[in-house]
Protein 1
Amino acid sequence: MTCVGCGAEVADIEYPVHSDMRTSPGCWALFCELLGREFSDPAYWPVHQLTVNAYALQHAASNPALHLLALCLRFDHGYSDAQILPIMRAAKKRNARLPEIGGPRYVTLTVLSVHAARNEWEHIASVTEWAQSAWKSFDDFHEVIRSLAHGLV
Ligand SMILES: [Zn+2]
């Protein structure tokens, strides 16, 4: 079946989904597998935040501005997770004033491309590509997110 969020072809299974995500059980199960890799082996951990941001952007049930901000800080500013987290906390505090972000203009890579990775190097490379494609697909909102980032860094 086709995932209601990202459009990936995923298994039609029964699986509990996250209530804050617009996703299908088969897609959510794949995402949980990726998280499993990242939580169980430190070699996979460096891209954990990118995994969360990319998935959330493609399956947002509410305003995904903070996830887009995180990717802006990573890809435009080259910030590390340690630099990004306090900025995210500051941004969260002004939640009501976050710009309203709609959906992606298109989806090219999905959770499926990362799921196919056979080792930690492929996992890291494919998560990075996936997150970059997710960031690019929100190009309608780059300007507003960049000015939000500018006010926070
Ligand atoms: Zn999906």
Protein 2
Amino acid sequence: MTSPSARTPHQAPEAGATSSFAFPLQPFRRWFDSNVPAHDEETAERIDWLRAMPFVGMHVGCLSIFLTGVSPTAAWTAVALYVLRMFAITAFYHRYFAHRAFRTSRAVQFAFALVGASGAQRGPLWWAAHHRNHHRHADTALDPHSPGLRGFLWSHMGWFLTSRAFHTDLQRIPDFAGYPELRWLDRYDVVAPIVLATALYLVGTLIAHVTPSLHTDGAQMLVWGFFVSTSALFHATVTINSLAHRFGKRRFATRDDSRNNAFLAVLTFGEGWHNNHHFFPGSACQGFRWWELDLTWFGLRALALCGLVHDLKPVPAWVLTKGRG
Ligand SMILES: [Zn+2]
Ligand SMILES: [Zn+2]
């Protein structure tokens, strides 16, 4: 039997496990600290409903629109936060952290990582590490979210809620794992959405007192600015995992089942040109033809003009002349 003094920190008993009060705190700690061990191999592929409660709660919270009503202020706040956070996800979580398609400063890197994290799609290291796995194994048994192998619902959000998926594989992202501020944000990824939700409630409450003619309040701003906007942001983002591997055109005969889909490209600011992206993932631009709208690319060029990002990797000429259509 191991004596307490012989235990390493990793062998320490879990909170609550050895006390007379055996309430299982572990699952609740995982809401706030993603470093708390998340699964054993037996349950790794199952949806962890307790851990997923904040995600479920966010969707249920959207129903509160029937209680709060809507105002132009709340609706435009929801739209603005969708736009800002979609850009942070596509430009930084995806093209920067996962694919290193441009360069930036440490401060800008963290600022957009923070905005991205407020989208409640977990931390930047988690997101990019999983996405690198997707590219490495796209539409094979090792792909975390292939709709061809496991169906629409699994690829859209089922995989995201499994015990296995809560873990960040830092070995998959060694180039960014060395930044302590990114590791902190990844570990406590829940902080950014909580701060945003709280700020929306406080701003709404302030507006109700200072400018009542705008007909909004804290609850309405919270529901539209956070619950509705963040849920829409989530589902739009993950259509690239589910729908963009099923519906659309294949310009390039890649080994996966990725598609180019104009509707999804509008919804996700350019990510819908997913077959282009799987063929050449290293480019900061995903629209390979003049008519392939890529709003993220425009946003990145604007940031480059301001000197906030640089070395945007272009689509090479040989890629532009390849493929059908
Ligand atoms: Zn893909
Ligand atoms: Zn990618």
